[in-house]
Predict the structure.
Amino acid sequence: MKPDLVFVYGTLKRGHGNHRVMQRAAGEFIGEAITVERFPLVVDGLPYLLDSSGEGHHVIGELYRVSDDAGWSYLDRLEGHPTFYRRRVISCEVDGVVMDAWVYFLQAPDRRLRELEAVREYTDRMVYA
């Protein structure tokens, strides 16, 4: 069974510019979360999560429940899934409980992005376009 949860690490989080899309998708906030595996989260104007398990950090983000296909369509459209970002299931932890959730990985990062320093968390102090 596929999860109805999504882990967000960037502009879909509360207080960021695309959170309105999460609201339109009727995303129910579950809690602050952290990835079980390490991944590189890089920022180059916008935050990008790279699908390189074991590199980078345990990424801090937020977990939401999206219960219907219309909600997933809103999110997939924003993220350009499956061409710009690709959605796949990872494990994350909320309050000591490990859960499976979808996450959006950048589909084809260039070498320049791979060379950027990875961050643990994308915050409102970081500037994005």
About this structure: The domain at 5-116 is CATH 3.10.490.10 (Hypothetical upf0131 protein ytfp).
